[in-house]
Amino acid sequence: MRTTCPYCGVGCQVEPEIQGGRILRVLAPDIPPNHGALCVKGRFGLDFPFSGKRLLYPMVREDRHQAFRRVSWDEALDFTANKLLAVLKRRGPEAIAVFPSAKTTNEEVYLTQKLARALLSTNHVDHCSRLCHSSSTVALSRSLGGASMTNPLEDIWKTDLFLVVGSNTTETHPVIGAMIKKRVRQGAGLIVVDPRYTGMAEAATLWLRVRPGTDLFLLNAMARYILEEGLWDQGYVEERTEGFAAWRASLEAYTLEEAEGITGVEKEKIALAARLYATTERAGAYWAMGVTQHTKGTATAQALVNLALLTGKVGKEGAGLNPLRGQNNVQGAGDMGGLPDVLPGYLKVAEEAGRKRFEALWGVGLNPEPGLRMTEVFQRIPEVEAIYLIGEDPVTSEPYQDHLKAKLEALPFLVVQDILENETTSFAHVVLPAASFLEKDGTFTNTDRRVQRIRKLLDPPGEARPDWWILQELGRRLAQALGRPWASYPGPEAIWEEVRRAIPEMMGGITYRRLEREGVRWPCPHEDHPGEAVLFRERFNTPTGKARFFPVHYTPPAETPSQDYPLTLSTGRVLFHWHGGTLSRNSQLQEAYPELKVEVNPKDAGRLGIQDGEIIQVVSRRGRIRARAWVTDRTPEGVVYAPFHFAEAPANRLTLDALDPFSRIPEYKVAAVRLEKLD
Amino acid sequence: MRLRVNGQEVEAQEGTLLLEITDPPHLCYHPHTETRGICRLCLVEVDGRLLPACTTQAQEGMEVRTDTQELQTLRRTLLEWLALTTDLGQAPSLLALLKAHHGQPQRWGKLPLNRREREPIRDNPFFLRDYAKCVNCRLCVDACGDGIMGVYALALEGRGLMAHPTTPLDRPLPETPCVFCGNCLQVCPTGALRPLSAEV
Ligand code: SF4
Ligand code: SF4
Ligand code: SF4
Ligand code: FES
């Protein structure tokens, strides 16, 4: 039976063949988005639901120092409801945060934020895309009025030039990486902006090896050059945008000469990249964490948006602005309102129109105050007293791990709802065992807005239950105590039907029946609508219908190398693993990549006397980890690259919690470190 | 555009492959790998000549026959040779085809060289390369290379009967650029490439 890969936002369709409690093989059907292709994670990494680390029974304890007690579902849910109600009564909704997950289904995210908003009256709702694409979301929303990929993945076949910035696509979105590479073999150009020699850089026609954290300067310099050379799309700028004059004036300082000095890229190369991008009609921009995970992440994403508007690339086939979303359901988690400032369909909680719609639908009054973002919630502990955490492992994924652990220790009440034991489980007061993607029905929305089914192929083990069931049962208890209405749903499809009614302009035409064969893209307002492929063909989703330029300026990273910490640490992922490693390291993938390897440039290694394969320590102002050195010139001199998947050697013990002022994303991509030999 | 297939008028679009409008058996064709014209199983008769349906585009006025006595005999022989040289134990569709064509591989006697003796190669955590079962269709090579991945971890080596796909210089897969996407497994029609998880 056909279902959707649970790893990344590509949303590949998979057909696992399951027999006798294990997966025999995984094939892929010949339908979008992957047309039969998969990467190693979808092909060989789907066996984590069979891991011995599965959470099988509900467990509770009064405080962190007691042992967990296995209890019945009734007891666990009563206990959780009573604790949340007590906090609500004593401290009010501001003291409770509820985090849905970009790994759960649309239906489940919808239900989670409904529970938070309609019953607990809190808008402290957020999920892990805070840590990946929040910067893109801010920049795209304020400029275009929408924060998804503007173009479908099929457009890759129509693109003549790719501008890929800060995305290790072949490892983090491998099926998209393979598609782009194939299109390049057919003759398209590929400009890659990345400090590391990734698979993309290897395939590039033009590789700009920027110093970490300087892309913004490069992009602004490209824009200035395009203006100077008269290569911009004047008609487009006049008809479809606003804020141009002020933005243009802001580019004064971004000359090619300056750019060469700051970014380390020869000015001829920058000029060539600018020229190619401006003069290729079908040029698409793609980007990921290398852009967003900086204190100037929003500004950098904005610089890309500005560049695309200047050259008239948005609203056209084979072009557009395409942030590659990370988790399988990041797109859906945002669409379903898993964010502190918006309801489902991106209706703002602060605006009456949106609130009214949901007040009518849910039959309750709603809190008009936008909530705190995830990174802020953790900082506000213990003012925030209760956190309900679904499918997330902040101990591994948040920056500056020691600081976060201290915060969690001080947290009076933590609910962890998840499928596998992870680093955060040990901080919980309640553990609610959830069903994995193989054990429930529902939908995920992939990076190009395609709503796709997941299907129940197995029964959950032990007493694990689907998240939607847990939420519904908890909601029923809270509603009863609070005297508020709460619908009861026979299954995920009924929840989806409510979503369709709630945001018909976006999801109205998408029924489970239509999804039987293949996914449908939103916006899809009615059942005869095919689903929109290219966004903003005619107008943008802003009040005036025009896109907005915003001036943005380069600032150096929050922490720069010093005498004691002379190297720059950049964190990220590797092909074989996924985020905190909770899934991939409990699957067959672990065998292929069992331990942390940090990339060290041969020049740095030579200077420090570090051999390839040697165990070393990576030390920052906040902590130290042990790792195996991989001496390679994939990473430039002065830079150390560490994947963050390994709980026993967590790269996020080293990162700092300096945040982007708009998106509140941490600067994962730049921290000052030194390497020490173990003697 | 109109042409005749087995005496019947057929309407086809410019650029359509004969394979898409006729139904001969085929082995080495795959829509995603761009592999074409190697196995010869899909031969059809076009205006009296034998041409592979997977590489031949439909043309106005063509006379195509897909099931002549001559073609039947040829397919039978091709299938017999595959069965003779290769272990088709994990290729049920090929075995069915052999049966449907009344194939009797034994009638050719014993071969001096035989790929059946090749040992399976198990050099990575995910899948086996069991070239005793390989029919040299090249699908894996093309899936890994130009067709899908652009990785080029596999190449065809050797000649004639002993030709087989392997890694450059026969290196273990983890020492090649292989990314273990398993797309070669997905296209392999014979079970020569198969996941370790399917082994008992
Ligand atoms: S590319 Fe992403 S969705 Fe596709 S198989 Fe790999 S991890 Fe799964
Ligand atoms: S698994 Fe390796 S050999 Fe097979 S297609 Fe993928 S990269 Fe090529
Ligand atoms: S291994 Fe499989 S796909 Fe590759 S040539 Fe042999 S039979 Fe064909
Ligand atoms: S399928 Fe046509 S020659 Fe192999």
Notes on the structure:
Chain A is an alpha/beta fold. Chain A has 25 helices and 25 strands. In chain A, the strands form six sheets. A six-stranded mixed sheet of chain A has the order 5-4-15-14-13-6, covered by helices on one side. A six-stranded mixed β-barrel of chain A has the order 20-24-21-23-22-25. Chain A has a five-stranded parallel sheet with strand order 9-8-7-11-12. In chain A, α4 (about 135-145) runs parallel beside α14, α8 (about 215-230) runs antiparallel to α11 (about 255-265) and α11 packs across α12 (about 265-280). Chain A starts with a strand and ends with a strand. Chain B is an alpha+beta fold. Chain B is built from five helices and nine strands; from the N terminus they run ββαβββααβαββαβ. Chain B has helices at about 20, 70-85, 90-100, 140-145, 185; strands spanning about 1-5, 10, 45, 50, 65, 125-130, 155, 165, 195. Chain B has a five-stranded mixed sheet with strand order 2-1-5-3-4. A two-stranded antiparallel sheet of chain B has the order 6-9. In chain B, a hairpin with a 6-residue loop joins β7 (about 155) and β8 (about 165). In chain B, α2 packs across α3 (about 90-100). The longest helix of chain B has 17 residues, at about 70-85. The model of chain B has no long low-confidence stretch (mean pLDDT about 90). Bound molecules: iron/sulfur cluster (3 copies) and FE2/S2 (inorganic) cluster. One iron/sulfur cluster binds near residues 151, 179, 180, 181 and 182 of chain B.
